[in-house]
């Protein structure tokens, strides 16, 4: 239960703090962009089963791989895609934390 709370807090609450930290005036827009980056979880539709609470997303799903991460890092270098890059990388960090918690909870 605690693992689930941590995971979803990192996906929904912490991005709000990131958005506020990036811009006091455009935080709502930034927050929506950060939330939109969770669409990378669409790659879970390719898995069978689609959802497995004990599976680590990192390295398993196509948009959660090292190569995808390299693309997300490149987004940081362009002002128009920087916030999306931050959101995508933070999403992967959140999923990596979940993987670590999953291992330590067993």
- The secondary-structure element order is HHHHH
Helix/strand class: mainly alpha
Approximately what portion of the residues adopt beta-strand conformation?
Answer: under 5%
* Biggest sheet record: none
Number of domains: 1
Query: Runs with pLDDT <50, length 5+?
Result: none
Separate helix tally: 5
Gyration radius (Cα, Å) is 14 Å
Shape: globular
Task: State the end-to-end distance.
Answer: 13 Å
The overall strand count is 0
- Portion of residues in helices? 55-70%
| Overall pLDDT metric | 92
Short description:
With 106 residues, the chain is mostly helical. Helix content is 59%, strand content 0%.
What would your notes on this structure say?
The protein has one domain. The model has no long low-confidence stretch (mean pLDDT 92). The chain starts with a helix and ends with a helix. It has helices spanning 2-12, 14-22, 27-36, 66-75, 82-104. The radius of gyration is 14 Å and the shape is globular. The chain contains 5 helices and no strands. The longest helix is centred in the C-terminal third of the chain and has 23 residues, at 82-104. It is mostly helical and 106 residues long.
Task: Describe how the helices and strands are arranged.
Elements: H1 2-12, H2 14-22, H3 27-36, H4 66-75, H5 82-104
Question: Could you name the key traits of this structure?
Answer:
106 residues, mainly alpha, 5 helices, 59% helix
